[in-house]
Amino acid sequence: MLTLYVKTGCPYCAKVLAAGEELGIEFDLKNSSDPAMVEELIARGGKRQFPYLVDSDNNTEMYESDDIVEYLHKHFGKEA
Known about the structure:
alpha+beta, Glutaredoxin, 4 strands, about 80 residues, 4-stranded mixed sheet
């Protein structure tokens, strides 16, 4: 399962969401508008930064939109 922590209006989040849409990926989205979610994000990743991807199937968690997009293409793209 892929969970994506996002912030409304964040262009980096939009970039990851667009890549997910292109690849036909559905995310469990967690938005920063929920204060409890922000605390959960900080507990998982150590900082309040968006986007943040959690791939529980592959035991992978990461920040940085470029890294996330690359990961999605590598693991869920047509060549995966």
